[in-house]
Design brief:
Elements (H helix, E strand, L loop, with lengths): L4 E3 L3 H22 L3 H10 L7 H10 L6 E2 L1 H6 L2 E3 L6 E4 L2 E4 L12 E3 L5 E5 L2 E6 L3 E3 L22 H11 L3 E5 L7 E4 L4 E5 L4 H18 L6 H4 L1 H18 L5 H12 L3 H6 L1 H15 E3 L2 H4 L1
Parallel strand pairs: 1-13, 10-12
Antiparallel strand pairs: 2-8, 3-9, 4-8, 5-7, 6-7, 11-12
Length: 301
């Protein structure tokens, strides 16, 4: 039998609260945009490569929580140092060289012709990059964009993790706890229908992460291959917003983590955040209804 959380609010009351909670995300992100920390985040973001879909898939397969990646020396130029022992993310680069040896290079994927008619050899070297979560600021007194999201601490008194796990299991998902890389609280594997939550986070963070991954399962479980990576900013904004709304309905404030997370993935675009309302509220209502049960007020009286 699925374990649920007892609530004294009616579904109608929860719907009103959910709308107000979602509206508050955009309001708090708007406030964040005026801070030194957000300006530091924007400075850090400028100049990063726009990665191809193939490289996005490679990055995601190796580190599903990656947000901004760069090479070792690129991070140093941006005032951050890759921590010793961090495992690199491998992607493909792009390089060319003029064909000057007089040989007739074949017309295939290894050659191309530029706008001046010059034949060039093309190759794709393997590059090593690192996510921002694998780095530390070289100036400890500077505003650290990585601190936009503060991991939640404390207990899960209501048993949110248990209730969400039962909900996901009933829907055909496997829920597991694993030791994950630093900065990765959990992930959803859509192909194998598996949800993984880190073992080294405090119960409150595990509860929030479970809600986030449940939102992915509900909203994004049937996406076509590659679609999630192409629209990841929107989908991460949706999932974290659902987690914030459902947690808020249960009395758990996740704003210390959620607002920075949503701001980062949405580029603080409040219009984008507001545009997700229909999906966010649909998922929030479905998950909240599934993991709660009304209190027996007559018996309590």
């Amino acid at each position: 039998m699925a374990r649920k959380i007892t609530t004294r609010t009616t579904p109608e009351q929860r719907r009103e609260q959910a709308t107000a909670l979602h509206n508050s995300i955009a309001e708090q992100v708007e406030t964040l945009r005026g801070t030194d920390q957000w300006r530091a985040f924007l400075d850090l973001s400028r100049g990063f490569h726009a990665y191809s879909l193939n490289n996005l898939l490679l990055i995601w397969s190796q580190r599903p929580d990656a947000t901004r990646v760069a090479g070792f020396r690129q991070w140093q130029a941006r005032g951050r140092q890759v921590r010793k022992g961090e495992k690199a993310i491998r992607i493909f680069g792009y390089a060319t060289a003029k064909i000057t040896d007089g040989t007739d290079a074949p017309d295939d994927e290894r050659t191309e012709t530029d706008e001046n008619g010059q034949r060039r050899r093309v190759w794709y070297p393997v590059l090593s990059v690192f996510d921002i979560a694998q780095t530390d600021p070289t100036d400890p007194d500077a505003a650290d964009p990585a601190d936009l999201t503060k991991t939640l601490t404390g207990a899960d008194h209501l048993g949110v993790l248990t209730a969400v796990s039962d909900y996901l299991t009933a829907g055909g998902w496997r829920v597991e706890r694993e030791a994950l890389p630093p900065g990765l609280g959990g992930f959803t594997d859509f192909k194998t229908r598996r949800v993984v939550i880190a073992t080294d986070v405090e119960p409150a963070q595990a509860a929030k992460t479970a809600l986030h991954e449940a939102a992915h399962a509900y909203l994004h479980g049937d996406l076509e291959p590659g679609e999630y990576q192409q629209h990841r900013g929107t989908y991460e904004t949706e999932a974290e917003s659902v987690a914030y709304v459902v947690a808020g309905l249960l009395g758990l404030d996740t704003s210390a983590y959620t607002i920075g997370y949503v701001a980062g993935w949405s580029d603080a675009d409040t219009d984008l955040i507001r545009s997700t309302a229909a999906n966010v509220l649909r998922a929030a209502h479905a998950i909240a209804d599934a993991i709660t049960t009304p209190a027996n007020l007559d018996a309590a009286a």
